[in-house]
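PROTEIN DESIGN WORKSHEET
SECTION A - STRUCTURE
LENGTH: 258
TOKENS:
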């Protein structure tokens, strides 16, 4: 039965996907898509494999996603690969996971198609991991392609705290008093110190695995985003799932976050 279903998908899904694309005008597509790659561990348990196998299967699905984004002209993609909370996982799981992330980022660099920008508290990561992420950014800086934010050691509250800390440090160096800063500080001052400073906020945030919560992902930037929750675990997320998310976004009446 499973083989029969797979054969049906291979025959009919390409035509179905093509029709969905034709029905979505370019002006209705998001510029920036954030993706919470959730469900690797549960997927691994469901197929009777260990956690590392689930993370590797999830990592293998990143390049296909970015290719799908390229196909429709997405400008920025933010991938949440590891949260600050994940850093407290047992060492037996965390160390292999960091290695898988490093390999996945290196593979993206090797493609020479996308600009890599790490977002997160790199100071909380092992030195070797942080250095590899910075090297990935530097080696892809001049690539004229889609911007890919890799969120590693990322937490939305931590990002906002870092932004405020950076803002205070900047103005202290200028000799600005706290009283003077309190008079002039506004939303844009903080936005200019976020990890994603200078980028458009995400228009669409996708979370896989059926969970329907932000969990700390792009808390500041997603204030006016649309959200799409997909039942599939991340390793099972397909092009048709991505296109359904875009279709849902295109069909919504966006009212500036109100």
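SECTION B - SEQUENCE
RESIDUE ASSIGNMENT:
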């Amino acid at each position: 039965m499973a083989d029969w279903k797979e054969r049906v998908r291979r025959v009919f899904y390409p035509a179905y996907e093509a029709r969905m694309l034709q029905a979505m005008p370019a002006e209705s597509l998001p510029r920036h898509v954030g993706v919470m790659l959730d469900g690797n561990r549960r997927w691994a348990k469901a197929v009777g494999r260990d956690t590392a196998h689930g993370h590797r299967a999830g990592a293998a699905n990143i390049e296909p996603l970015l290719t799908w984004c390229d196909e429709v002209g997405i400008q920025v993609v933010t991938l949440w690969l590891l949260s600050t909370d994940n850093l407290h996982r047992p060492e037996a799981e965390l160390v292999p996971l960091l290695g898988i992330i490093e390999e996945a980022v290196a593979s993206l660099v090797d493609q020479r198609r996308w600009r890599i920008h790490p977002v997160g508290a790199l100071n909380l990561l092992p030195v070797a991991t942080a250095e590899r992420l910075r090297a990935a950014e530097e080696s892809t800086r001049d690539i004229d392609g889609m911007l890919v934010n890799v969120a590693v050691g990322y937490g939305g509250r931590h990002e906002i705290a870092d932004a405020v800390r950076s803002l205070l440090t900047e103005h202290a160096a200028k000799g600005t008093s706290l009283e003077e800063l309190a008079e002039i500080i506004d939303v844009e001052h903080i936005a200019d110190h976020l990890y994603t400073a200078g980028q458009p906020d995400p228009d669409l945030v996708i979370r896989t695995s059926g969970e329907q919560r932000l969990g700390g992902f792009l808390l500041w930037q997603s204030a006016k985003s649309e959200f799409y929750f997909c039942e599939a675990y991340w390793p099972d997320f397909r092009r048709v799932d991505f296109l359904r998310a875009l279709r849902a976004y295109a069909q919504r009446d966006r009212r500036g976050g109100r």
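SECTION C - NOTES
The chain is about 50% helix and 15% strand.
Residues 63 and 111 are 9 Å apart (CA to CA).
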